[in-house]
Amino acid sequence: MSSSRRSFIKKAAVGVVGVALGNKVNAMSAQSYSNIIGANDRVNIAIQGLGRRYGAYIPPILDKKNNVTLKYFCDVMKSQRDKAAAKFSKSVNYKPVVENDIRKILDDKEVDAIFMATPDHWHTPGAIMGMQAGKHIYLEKPCSHNMNENEMVVAAQEKYNKVVQMGNQQRSSAESSQIIKEIHNGIIGDTYKATAFYINKRGEVPIPVKAAPPEGLDWELFQGPAIRKAYTHDTWNYNWHWYGWDFGTAEMGNNATHELDIARWALGVSLPEHVDVIAEKNHYKNDGWEMYDSMNATFKFSGNKVIEWDGQSRNGYNKYGKGRGTIIYGSKGSAFIDRGGFALYDLAGKLIKDNKSSGAEGGLALGGGGDLSTRHAVNFFETIRGNQELTSPIQQGATSQAMTHYANIASKIGKSFEVDENTGRIYDRDAMKFWSRTYEPGWDPKL
Questions:
Q1: Is the pTM of this model over 0.85?
Q2: Could you give all domains of the chain from N- to C-terminal order, each with its CATH number?
């Protein structure tokens, strides 16, 4: 690596991007990155979290034209590190280092960027640690565990001037971009409502019981920023999503993030003024699932615009004909948008135009992956080099993420509330009690 490139890593001379959460934000300009990394320079990366999502990053890493080297695999579970390394070694002529502690990787000045695919409670603290170490961050959704972290991750990007792409990969869909541009240009008239939905048929989950951590799991590091507690059976392997709020953000953070982002993008709105939620656990009532599994949420915005959320985690009836997607309503027609493309309808409900993606992207399957994830990752690489603009800068991602946090808070307090659309603050004392969380001593993120 050249001395000038080392200087870049230390100084991170990037132009400040965007404004505070809740205000209008433009995508990062390629010009603002003009002196980051030369267009032909290799980008060295590490992946933190080797569960169901990391496989989506491998195709763009392996593609030689992207000029990327994977230096590290990192996970707190030994079996996942070994499995990932063995599989990857079949496709390349070098071996990434395997490591269980991301803090050791952050000390390596040769690492330019981190892909973060950990459980939710690690996302903001880990991203801030990475930015402070001079790394660019590809941050999987949800970008934050709560509203306080939502603001912190944006503030960190603006303080440390790093490229921070949120992993809501539908922003990299050419079809979604096309139809939303047409919507903004009036193809369905004046937009007034969006209905976003997610339907799955998740089954029963075990009731958590105290047990020894599985062999090879660093339970201390898994918990990281979370308050320490005894391990319970099957927590680490995806069920952390449903076992209380220490690690997960329920289905809102897990999946609603994607469709609500498309709805907000299409309607051209920022933060809501009012949030109303009905949420219950309606299925397998005696199992270990501790959150709601069914949610209807209504977000009201200025300009008389509304976004509705319909989420069913464990009832597989596809009342919309698809497992997930977003419907946009306008004065002259409507549009349906999902990862597979879009369909445009007139007021009579007649299909007048559609455009299906030629590629594939995971919909309901755990982990997903496909063309959109590849494009999203390549966009991240090219923005680091100064050749492109981010398709999902953290300011935009966090604004969409706020909706999921508001809905979760409303589900916890069992009532609706008003929001200051400029600051994001909630006009309810009970709700504001859930604005942030308590951290294990020494782990609270600091700017």
A1: yes
A2: 3-171+376-393 (3.40.50.720), 174-206+231-362+396-432 (3.30.360.10)
